[in-house]
Amino acid sequence: MLLRLCILMGSYFLVAIGFWVVIGWALFAMQGKEMTTDMNFIYRIQHLEQTLGYAFQNIALLEQALTHRSYGPHHNERLEFLGDSILGMIIAKELFALFPDSPEGDLTRMRSVLVRETTLAELAREFKIGDCLLLGPGELKSGGSRRDSLLADAVESIIGAIFIDSNEHFEIVRHLVLKWFDKRLQAINPNVSQKDPKSALQELLQSQHKELPVYRIENIVGSDNNQVFEVSVTVQDIKMVFKGKGSSRRRAEQKAASSVLDYLANNTNQ
Q1: Which H or E run contains 214?
Q2: How many CA atoms lie within 13 A of 269 on its CB side?
Q3: Are residues 64 and 138 part of one domain?
């Protein structure tokens, strides 16, 4: 009887040891995974610093600039507020110097083009900022790292972060921003319409007293964080259906609208 009891207790003891060994290895593996993720993030933001042309003294400011509110309470919205104002000031001052004969209305339109969401999102994609964003599970699943609004906000947040990190040295920030926007500043022309395709198409149709274009999502393909949208647009008195593809519904609609404008430009009788 005593022997059986000892064997039984020994078996329970061995099972308990095995259980905790498994748990220990699982925890170890989880810690290793988290560490790898952290190291990958550090590598990405170091690469981002090189792309931006600025090395942060306080890297926590850059991390905050890349943090969406869905990720945690220490997010980038205050930095975005600051960066938005600084960016507007830098671009306005540069346009004022570049176009001394342009009236206020033209300067305002050009500034709006350069600091609008789509332009900032394009810049963010060039810098691969989306790869560095810290997002909550919901935003990750819905493809937040590719969304224009989040990318544009991150650019403004980074500008605000650089301003603080440089001890509020405006000239450092100004030099960087003008370097980032150099090609766009060279390309912009006060005599060319600065409207995006959707706005241009809508105004054209309204001037002809026609109904507004109708956009429809035809298809969405790809994984949650790598989707491609296909959008169609129809226009009154034109039998053709025009389509566009993009990484967001908005980008796809812009491409579809651009196709309509190209068609109308080549078919003036419409």
Answers
A1: strand 214-221
A2: 0
A3: yes
Residue 17 lies inside a defined structural domain of this protein: yes
Tell me which of 84, 148, 165, 196 is the catalytic residue.
84
Secondary structure letter of residue 188 according to DSSP: -
Instruction: Give the pair of three-digit tokens for residue 52.
Output: 């931006």
Summarised one tens digit per residue, pLDDT across range 172-211 is 999 999 999 999 999 988 877 667 888 888 888 898 899 9
Provide mean pLDDT across the span 103-119. Answer: 90
Q: Which of 225, 223, 235 is nearest to 263 (CA)?
A: 235
Look at residue 153 and tell me whether its pLDDT is greater than 90. yes
Q: Is residue 182 among the annotated active site residues?
A: no
Between CA 259 and CA 257 the distance in angstroms is: 5
Check if 84 is active-site.
yes
pLDDT (tens digit, 9 = 90+) per residue, 30-54? 333 333 346 888 889 999 999 999 9
Candidates 80, 148, 153, 156; catalytic one: 156
Last residue of a domain, one of 167, 187, 207: 187
Residues 12 and 69 placed together within one structural domain of the fold: no
Opening angle at CA 160, ends 148 and 183, nearest 5: 60
